[in-house]
Amino acid sequence: MAKKVAPAALQTEVLNDEEWMKVLKRKGLIVSIFMIRALRKDIFDAMSLVVDVYSDWSGPCTGMVSILKKIKMEIEGDALSYATASCDHVTDLKRFQGKSEPTWMFIHEGRMINLMFGAHCPQFIKILMTELERIQKGDEHEFLIDVFEKSPEEIVRLKIQEEMKVAKETARKSRKVAEAKAKYEAEMLHLITSLCNETCLLLFPWIFKDEEGRRRDKRTSPPYVELIEELLPENYMVEQELRKRMNADLLQQILHELVASILIKSKYSFTETSKQLLFDGKCMFMRLKIVEGRKQLDVHNHLCNILFNESTVPESEDNLNEDWYAL
């Protein structure tokens, strides 16, 4: 009794570059296939090969095996053969890694002549029949490129993906800008509402020195004590105190950013003498909040009235009394 011969595998398994090169040497057409129905046998005079390109994580399309068998039986002979190829192990197919979408590559004499994505059967059959007829008649294909090159369809898809990526990044940046703007506006609103009843005061370094120029504690400095115990209690609360050494740059910054609201109505400018006094040791910055009963008053002008008996800072040192120690 003759030994029963096992049927040949329906699909040639391609797992590396060497096996892939062997497949490419086959004559005729190589196609990655999803489904074919009602194909004309007379267009298969040229040998054809169908390759299922897949990623390792998703595996080949096993659900297609029965369809492939039926097509193979209808075609008969060696006019059509199949193969599966892992894009994770074949260099020419690396660009398809990580994708689960069916990819049908049509190859003739080792070169790609068409490519289709998806599982639309009528479209696949149309492409397959068109390419087979072109092979039989010797007509030119729409393109003829190496299998490692990108097809027109791939280029279009990459362009769309890049445009989507750019649009997504643009939207992300716009959203980030909008969020930053909203945060900034919220912070500004908070500052405006919370600081509208606040002002600041700058105390000269000399008030924290005794008659001999030695440093002394603020509680033993008469000008500070007078300010805290007599001038401010019924008018302002001290929210914050900060000791800091002044310099020309910091002074300029303060004039523009911190006390501009106080000096805006005044033409006062620091003389070299007053600057030397400011730079001779650490100044004290005080953040003051007007008390509840005085909120109807202008927070800055009221402080000037307390210190200088004027609603604004005097325009020159000549108009300041000899006890001037704060700004």
From TrEMBL:
InterPro entries documented for this protein: Thioredoxin-like_sf (IPR036249), TXND_domain-containing (IPR051766)
Domain of life assignment: Eukaryota
Gene3D superfamilies for this protein: Glutaredoxin (3.40.30.10)
Entry-linked SUPFAM superfamilies: Thioredoxin-like
Protein name: TXND3 protein
